[in-house]
Amino acid sequence: MQTPIQRIRNGALALAMVMLLSIAGFRYIGGYGWLESLWMVVITISTVGYGEHPTGGATTQILTMMVILLGVTAGAYTFGGFVQMMLEGEIDRALGRRRMTKELKRLNDHVIICGMGHLGSDLANQLQHRDIPFVIVDFEQQKVDRATNDGLLAVQGDATSEEVLEMVHLDRARALATALPSDANNVFITLTARNLNPDIQIIARSDRESSCRKLRQAGANKVVMPHRVGAQQMERMISRPSTADLVELFAEASHLEMELDELQVSKGSQLVGQTVAESRIKNRFNLLVVGIRDDSGRFRFNPKPEETIHEHDTLLVIGEVKDINQMKASMESAG
After folding, report:
1. Which pick of 40, 57, 218, 266 has the fewest CB atoms within 10 Å?
2. Does 191 lie in the same domain as 157?
3. Number of domains in the chain
4. Dihedral (Cα; 79, 80, 82, 87), 10-degree rounding
């Protein structure tokens, strides 16, 4: 099947050929002058007519009929290419909007990324590797189109708008990450999101130290300063290269064989009331418990074997991904 562009090109070539041959036919068969021949071809193919009657007898009449049939056919074919191109564009856009609407309706426990700059793009890549659902919101249509072409779910709009945040179902999201280059916009988005959903986790980017306090006052749970994170990583590479390699191993989505993960101890879990030693996490799943965070947010690093596991505790474990997934499955089935 021909594309609309191919159809327009082939139709235009055919129409041009018909016109040239028809002009020559009227000139030499009908006895018209060159300008009159062009006039006859134009009013014939356009079906205007103006009441013209060929003066060259039956041969000219046959020529005129051929010009009408071939010219109108070539013109209609070319015009159909334009119609096809416009309709396909509209259909593609309509289907794209419909598909996006369906995907937005299915979103639940997802992450909203505000801003598709360098930080937002890297975050989307990390979440994609972790199979965590997310949606991108950006004001620039070009960035949204690029994300959509990469198979990502993206919405064009102003992330500071309540309507846009409601459209991406902020009420059902697990977290919102605002990664815009403007600290002022990040503060405004944080304030808007916190008012719409008091329970959502908000992670905000900041370029200035003075903006960190404002972002926390607006409702951000965590504030990330990219230049500070980069400086800390460079310092580790200089002073503690092995530690830097270990941090990089767990931080990069490309290293999926080892993982530092967290496991939530739900109500009714068989781990509730057991000590770290009694849970036998190391023997059963080959995982190392490096920390426990209780319901109040207090961390207990390197817990002792007699440390008791309580309901709603979060276990920080290190191990291979397959072993972590095995323990998660075991905890879900037991719960």
Report:
1. 57
2. yes
3. 3
4. 150
User: Is residue 164 in a domain?
Assistant: yes
In a domain, 252, yes or no: no
d(CA 305, CA 295): 20
Asked whether the beta carbons of 275 and 306 are under 8 A apart, the reply is yes
What single-letter DSSP state applies at residue 308? Answer: B
CA angle 323, 327, 328 (to 5 degrees): 115
Owning domain of residue 72: 4-102
Q: Which H or E run contains 35?
A: helix 34-45
User: For each successive 10 residues of the chain (335 residues), what is the average pLDDT?
Assistant: 64 75 75 75 64 58 64 66 59 62 87 94 89 93 88 91 93 95 94 95 93 93 91 88 77 64 86 91 91 87 90 89 86 69
CA distances in angstroms from 227 to 21, 221, 231, 233, listed in the order given = 71, 19, 6, 10
Distance of alpha carbon 26 from alpha carbon 330, whole angstroms: 88
DSSP 8-state secondary structure symbol assigned to residue 199? T
Q: Which two tokens stand for residue 100?
A: 């996006």
Are 248 and 228 spatial neighbours (Cβ–Cβ below 8 Å)?
A: no
User: 204 lies in a domain?
Assistant: yes
Q: Both tokens of residue 187?
A: 């503060």
Q: What is the DSSP string of 168-197?
A: TTGGG-SEEEE--S-HHHHHHHHHHHHHH-
Q: Would you give the distance in Å from CA 308 to the centre of its chain?
A: 43
**Measured distance CA(290)–CA(282) in Å, rounded:** 11
What's the pLDDT score for residue 325? 86
In the three-class reduction of DSSP (H, G, I as helix; E, B as strand; rest coil), residue 292 is classed as strand
Query: Per the structure block, which two tokens stand in for 43?
Result: 């009013």
Cα distances from 201 to residues 28, 61, 91, 175, in angstroms, run 83, 81, 38, 5
